[in-house]
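Researcher: Quick test of sequence recovery. Tokens follow.
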């Protein structure tokens, strides 16, 4: 680890940008390296063990090359299985993960009906089930595993277009009406989804609170970064993006430039 090193933000694709934009605002003195594992996207259907091995393997090269001060896994599908393995393999690096915001949702719901919208992988995880058991046992939680929303978010962010009927089909199972009550909170448990939240609002059968945990995750990272030396002067190097495919298409590169990231 290098205390003056960058904060490395990792996701399977563009989703982690929703966390990066919050992190940058509250950590202006830090450099960032954004890593999109586009060669592995989408993570939703990966076998757990294979995905864990893949990510732990990728980090060996990433740590060698970028010497991060902290690594932020801005992906629920990955974080719900890989955090202990990453911490064990690279004990010198502080890791911050992203897990479904089930606890705040259970605290805030008035109707007692909460939905968790995630990838199929996150929905299946024992970690997610344990969060519900530990923090939401008095609440009815519906887990909705969406096959297509992460891909729709990628298309939307790269090309500016999304099929609203397709978004509606993916979010519809989140809306539950029972015993005179209706779902009042939907947890966005995939970092890709906040980019589609306006379309989701538009296509929702009734208004709900959409919980986007990006700011909370960025604040958690800040609480660790603040304890490290450095980061007081504004960085003179630009933030970088790494695609694991080594071969991003024009639309992906254009998006990253829009976020102020240069290849490297
Ligand atoms: N952005 C990721 C998450 O938070 C996963 C998207 C995917 O690879 O399907 O779960």
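Model:
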């Amino acid at each position: 680890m290098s205390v003056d090193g960058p904060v490395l933000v990792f996701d399977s694709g563009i989703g982690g940008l929703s966390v990066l934009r919050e992190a940058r605002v509250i950590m202006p003195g830090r450099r960032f390296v954004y890593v999109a594992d586009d060669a592995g996207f989408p993570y939703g259907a990966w076998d757990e063990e294979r995905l864990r091995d893949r990510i732990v393997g990728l980090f060996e090269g990433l740590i060698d090359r970028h010497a991060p001060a902290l690594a932020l896994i801005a992906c629920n599908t990955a974080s719900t299985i890989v955090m202990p393995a990453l911490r064990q393999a690279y004990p010198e690096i502080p890791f911050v993960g992203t897990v479904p915001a089930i606890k705040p949702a259970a605290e805030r719901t008035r109707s007692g009906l909460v939905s968790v919208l995630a990838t199929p992988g996150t929905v299946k995880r024992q970690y997610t089930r344990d969060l519900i058991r530990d923090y939401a046992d008095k609440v009815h939680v519906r887990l909705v595993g969406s096959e297509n929303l992460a891909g729709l978010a990628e298309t939307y962010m790269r090309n500016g277009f999304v099929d609203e009927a397709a978004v509606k089909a993916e979010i519809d199972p989140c809306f539950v009406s029972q015993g005179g009550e209706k779902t009042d909170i939907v947890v966005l448990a995939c970092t890709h989804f906040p980019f589609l939240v306006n379309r989701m609002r538009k296509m929702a059968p009734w208004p709900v609170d959409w919980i986007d945990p990006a700011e909370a995750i960025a604040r958690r990272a800040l609480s660790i970064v603040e304890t490290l030396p450095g980061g007081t002067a504004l960085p003179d190097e630009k933030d970088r993006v790494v695609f694991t495919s080594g071969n991003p298409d024009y639309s992906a590169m254009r998006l990253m430039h829009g976020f102020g990231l240069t290849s490297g």
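Residues 11-13, 15, 41-44, 75-77, 119, 122, 150, 190-192 surround D-glutamic acid (CB under 6 Å).
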